[in-house]
């Protein structure tokens, strides 16, 4: 995102688009939009990301949070414009801007369980998972940063995720 913001890097934007577009589409569909409209929203959101990249501040938000907020706002605008009733998934967050206390408590509990499960992982596996999912680095970026072979990184992530799945199976 910084390369897009600072250098208007089209290659970086392509990578960002490839990463977020399918995730955004799923997010928008789960929030009540039909598939065709979801694709239009994703296109609008990604164009906004390109046009408004100069507004991104890594001190204020993660890239994913910033992009998902743009998507959510765009979807709310469309729902209002069409005069449709607000989907529950959007309405819950829209009411007064404060999250539901039950949702906050549940999220905090799930976060604690995840943190404990991550801490029980092999340190090498935990490091790779944190870099890939919390640091939002690609496997290639991790290989470049650590000097480890790509296959080693992929194996550590896969084994770590398998163990996390096993540890968190009751969370579902």
Automatic annotation (TrEMBL):
Transmembrane segments: none annotated. CDD domains: Sigma70_r4. InterPro entries: RNA_pol_sigma-70-like (IPR039425), RNA_pol_sigma-70_dom (IPR014284), RNA_pol_sigma70_ECF_CS (IPR000838), RNA_pol_sigma70_r2 (IPR007627), RNA_pol_sigma70_r4_t2 (IPR013249), RNA_pol_sigma_r2 (IPR013325), RNA_pol_sigma_r3/r4-like (IPR013324), WH-like_DNA-bd_sf (IPR036388). Belongs to the sigma-70 factor family. ECF subfamily. Residues 113-164 form the RNA polymerase sigma factor 70 region 4 type domain. The keyword Translocase does not apply. This is RNA polymerase sigma factor. NCBIfam families: sigma70-ECF (TIGR02937). SUPFAM superfamilies: Sigma2 domain of RNA polymerase sigma factors, Sigma3 and sigma4 domains of RNA polymerase sigma factors. It comes from the Bacteria. One of its GO terms (molecular function) is DNA binding.
């Amino acid at each position: 995102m910084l390369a897009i913001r600072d250098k208007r890097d089209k290659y970086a934007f392509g990578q960002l688009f490839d990463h977020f577009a399918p995730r955004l589409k799923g997010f928008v569909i789960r929030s009540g939009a039909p598939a065709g409209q979801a694709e239009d929203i994703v296109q609008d959101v990604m164009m906004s990301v390109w046009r408004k990249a100069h507004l991104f501040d890594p001190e204020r938000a993660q890239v994913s949070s910033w992009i998902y907020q743009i998507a959510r706002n765009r979807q709310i605008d469309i729902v209002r414009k069409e005069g449709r009733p607000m989907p529950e998934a959007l309405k819950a967050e829209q009411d007064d801007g404060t999250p539901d206390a039950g949702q906050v408590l549940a999220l905090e509990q799930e976060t604690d369980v995840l943190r404990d499960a991550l801490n029980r992982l092999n340190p090498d596996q935990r490091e790779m998972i944190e870099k890939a999912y919390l640091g939002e680095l690609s496997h290639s970026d991790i290989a470049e940063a650590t000097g480890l072979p790509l296959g080693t990184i992929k194996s550590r992530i896969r084994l770590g995720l398998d163990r996390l799945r096993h540890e968190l199976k009751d969370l579902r």
